[in-house]
Automatic annotation (TrEMBL):
Family: Belongs to the UPF0337 (CsbD) family.
Gene3D superfamilies hit by this protein: YjbJ
The organism's place on the tree of life at top rank: Bacteria
Spans through the membrane: none
Pfam families per record: CsbD (PF05532)
Domain CsbD-like: from-to ranges: 4-55
Organism: Microbaculum marinisediminis
InterPro entries assigned to the protein according to its UniProt record, in alphabetical order: CsbD, YjbJ_sf
Protein name according to UniProt: CsbD family protein
Amino acid sequence: MNKDRIIGSAKEAKGKLKEAAGKAVGDAKLEAEGKSDKIEGKVQNAVGGLKDAIKGK
């Protein structure tokens, strides 16, 4: 497993927590940051998946 996939998954989880916290307290900025972190994590995880696929060939 590529380190990008691990870091990406962690960022995605952090983003989900931030987004939920922002919704819970009514903080739109925190919610937006959470969504941004979540998307960034998904992208990094996908890049790691591509790297793994290339190494596998």
